[in-house]
């Protein structure tokens, strides 16, 4: 578990991080969202003992990061994918870290395989890696010690769409096996696809936090079918109200499972079935980016 209590970082008269508190629980992916300059990296650096806080505390499993005996075996960290020696190959980089952490060298091959760096790529010097390859190696590095906590700052930066999809799967799987993930991004969509908790920061302060369902909000289910009339009748018979949208879909004030079961029982084919969100998190995020705290842009 990651626990952040009243964490504050002041640079001169500027509060980069201002009284920030949140927790990341095992089995969850926490999306740490905010526009550029909001304070995400500074918060993560304080959690990892790289930046001393002006006030407040951050612990991993109730201990400050710097007090962990062999931190790589407990916490996988990826804060800056480019922060590796440019003259070492990808394989040398991981092998050296494996030795330092006391990890079996066979794990290096497992990880290189997992992150999709092939034999030719692992023999190349890190200085010649693309940003996407650096992120893949960075994730391999973070996972090398088989930690139960991951702290990743903008890990999808530079990855292509296939790479982003792949990384989501790795992180989801890690959390589903009981791991704790803290994942920062300035791109809402990237985090929305994988996180089950969100912490939204703007101007150094937390402006929203909570589980996915609370922040995204849900106002029922949208459903499209080949036979809207028969589905409407089946839903009404099951005491579920129905309204028709202009594009021919139906919206229903019930969850997707209820709607799916009614349709299945009536033998009705569905073309689309998904929750309708009220955009709570998106509104919050856009209000932050519009207020001049930063811009949501790709880097
Ligand atoms: N070493 C430093 N000295 C002075 N100011 C700093 C320092 N590091 C960060 N800041 C300032 O603190 C604020 C928060 O920066 P931080 O890098 O934590 O934001 P961020 O949310 O990670 O943004 P991005 O998405 O652009 O990486 C910014 O105003 C930044 O300029």
TrEMBL record:
<dbReference type="InterPro" id="IPR003439">
    <property type="entry name" value="ABC_transporter-like_ATP-bd"/>
</dbReference>
<dbReference type="GO" id="GO:0005524">
    <property type="term" value="F:ATP binding"/>
</dbReference>
<keyword id="KW-0067">ATP-binding</keyword>
<dbReference type="InterPro" id="IPR003593">
    <property type="entry name" value="AAA+_ATPase"/>
</dbReference>
<dbReference type="Pfam" id="PF00005">
    <property type="entry name" value="ABC_tran"/>
</dbReference>
<protein>
    <submittedName>
        <fullName>ABC transporter ATP-binding protein</fullName>
    </submittedName>
</protein>
<keyword id="KW-0547">Nucleotide-binding</keyword>
<dbReference type="InterPro" id="IPR027417">
    <property type="entry name" value="P-loop_NTPase"/>
</dbReference>
<feature type="domain" description="ABC transporter">
    <location>
        <begin position="2"/>
        <end position="228"/>
    </location>
</feature>
<keyword id="KW-0813">Transport</keyword>
<comment type="similarity">
    <text>Belongs to the ABC transporter superfamily.</text>
</comment>
């Amino acid at each position: 578990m990651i626990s952040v209590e009243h964490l504050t970082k002041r640079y001169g008269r500027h509060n980069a991080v201002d009284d920030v508190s949140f927790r990341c629980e095992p089995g969850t992916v926490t999306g740490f969202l905010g526009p550029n300059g909001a304070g995400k990296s500074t918060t993560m650096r304080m959690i990892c003992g790289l930046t001393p806080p002006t006030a407040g505390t951050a612990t991993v499993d109730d201990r400050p990061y710097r007090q962990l005996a062999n931190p790589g075996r407990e916490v996988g960290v990826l804060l800056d994918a480019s922060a590796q020696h440019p003259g070492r190959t990808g394989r040398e980089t991981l092998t050296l870290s494996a030795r330092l952490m006391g990890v079996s060298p066979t794990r290096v091959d497992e990880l290189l395989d997992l992150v999709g760096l092939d034999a030719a790529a692992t023999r190349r010097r890190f200085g010649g890696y693309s940003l996407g390859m650096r992120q893949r190696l960075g994730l391999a590095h973070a996972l090398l010690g088989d930690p139960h906590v991951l702290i990743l700052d903008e890990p999808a930066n530079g990855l292509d769409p296939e790479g982003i999809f792949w990384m989501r799967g790795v992180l989801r799987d890690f959390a589903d096996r009981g791991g704790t993930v803290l994942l920062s991004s300035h791109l809402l969509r990237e985090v929305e696809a994988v996180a089950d908790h969100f912490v939204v920061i703007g101007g150094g302060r937390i402006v929203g936090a909570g589980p996915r369902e609370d922040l995204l909000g849900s106002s029922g289910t949208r459903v499209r079918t080949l036979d809207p009339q028969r589905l409407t009748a089946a839903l009404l018979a099951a005491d579920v109200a129905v309204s028709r949208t202009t594009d021919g879909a139906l919206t229903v004030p019930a969850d997707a499972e209820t709607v799916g079961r009614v349709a299945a029982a009536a033998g009705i084919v569905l073309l689309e079935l998904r929750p309708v969100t009220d955009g709570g998190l998106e509104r919050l995020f856009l209000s932050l980016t519009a207020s001049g705290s930063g811009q949501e842009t790709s880097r």
